[in-house]
Specification:
The protein has 289 residues and is mainly alpha-helical. It is built from 17 helices and no strands. α2 runs antiparallel to α3, α11 packs antiparallel against α12 and α11 runs parallel beside α13. The longest helix has 15 residues. The chain is globular. It starts with 5 loop residues before the first helix and ends with a helix.
Length: 289
């Protein structure tokens, strides 16, 4: 190319980041800075590469460049910064970016909730969500799905029920990802029957839905139901994943069924082409121990 300008450079930086060629994207970004000034789209794309490669230091350096260039109030750049900090488990930095945003959109709000749900502590996720609701923020299905992902065994069940009531009020019951979150929330809070009710009422189910209900039964030690659901999942056309097998193995471990567990482990690669991870082997060791 005879002439390279900010548009062509940004297209390359963005293209590499979206193709998950993160190192090449960041290398192009560094080369670009020697030739032309970056714009907000360039910074957003380079932050996507940092988030994808978990390059915390690179993200912090780009944050400095963003401030220097005057793009720190650009919503797409701010979302990119929060994504980097969240994925690199730097939640205090992510929260500072969030607090500085003057007009956050639904994507921006979902990023911060998802970051806290994934990295914890769960109390901050709940506090932030309640704060949003109290401030009159328009809550969408993605935000609800994110906050449901923060629930654990010691989470406040009353809050989970309140969120379910909000879901009904907002007519989100038909959203597959929200229902998946409800199944997990109820099972982790010890309410298996509620998980079953949500699963049974879903208009459509995906692999995560099946994984969620299998995990729920496994968590509660109902191994026969785990295997029944595993077969139903395949009949329904959903492909088992490594997460599915982890739940099945947890169920075998729960009742000490080492023989069945070993059969399941061997079938992963021989029948489904899935290579066991450390977590799968840990379940088998627990069974045999």
């Amino acid at each position: 190319m005879v002439e390279r300008n900010v548009i062509t450079w940004t297209a390359m930086v963005s293209g590499m980041a979206r193709a998950e060629r993160y190192k090449e994207s960041l290398s192009l970004f560094r080369q670009m800075r020697l030739a032309v000034d970056a714009n907000s789209a360039t910074y957003s794309s380079s932050l996507l590469a940092c988030a994808g490669s978990l390059a915390a230091r690179g993200g912090q350096q780009i944050h400095g460049l963003v401030v220097k260039a005057g793009f720190e109030t650009d919503l797409h750049v701010e979302s990119g910064l929060m994504d980097v900090y969240s994925k690199c488990e730097l939640m205090e930095d992510a929260l500072r970016v969030f607090r500085s945003c003057q007009d956050p959109d639904e994507v921006f709000l979902t990023v911060i909730l998802g970051g806290y749900a994934q990295n914890g502590p769960e109390e901050k996720t709940f506090k932030l969500f309640v704060e949003m609701v109290g401030a009159g923020v328009v809550i969408d299905a993605n935000m609800v799905s994110s906050v449901l992902g923060a629930f654990g065994a010691s989470s406040p069940f009353a809050l989970g029920k309140q969120i379910h009531a909000l879901i009904i009020k907002k007519c989100f019951e038909g959203n597959t990802y929200v229902c998946n979150g409800l199944i997990n929330m109820y099972s982790k809070c010890g309410e298996l029957q509620e998980s079953i009710k949500v699963f049974g009422g879903m208009p459509s189910k995906n692999t995560i839905s099946w994984n969620s209900i299998i995990a729920a039964f496994s968590r509660h030690g109902h191994v026969s139901e785990v295997f029944r659901l595993f077969e139903s999942m395949k009949v329904d056309g959903a492909e088992p994943t490594d997460v599915t097998f982890l739940s099945v193995l947890h169920g075998c471990s729960h009742v000490g069924s080492a023989k069945k567990g070993l059969e399941v482990l061997n079938s992963m690669s021989s029948q489904y082409g899935i290579h066991p991870r450390v977590e799968h082997y840990a379940c088998v060791v627990d069974m045999l121990g």
